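Because discrete structure vocabularies remain unfamiliar, we reproduce here a specimen of the format, pairing a chain with its fold in token form:
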Amino acid sequence: MSAVLIARYYVKPGNSQAVREALGKMAARVKADEPACLVYNANVDPQNENLYCLYEIYKDEAALVAHRETPHFKEIIEGIIVPLLEKREREIYEQVIG
């Protein structure tokens, strides 16, 4: 069963562009290196440049767990993006239809 991750990033003011650029790099690495990631979509709130919502679908829960262990996750998400955030929220779902 597919695993769905929804993550909300609350960016510290003044860091939105850096987060946007880092997410672009992350998306390219996910696409190149993670065939079990079926969708990797980053979005920004049009009313609030400091609020991002990521929507990701993985083949299964194991693929989602493996995603968090990749060198690019550690480098880009944990190393670059997380220090620029006020907070981050994550929700995990099982896909019902899709």
Notes: The beta strands are 3-11, 37-45, 48-58, 85-94. The longest strand covers residues 48-58. The chain has a mean pLDDT of 97.
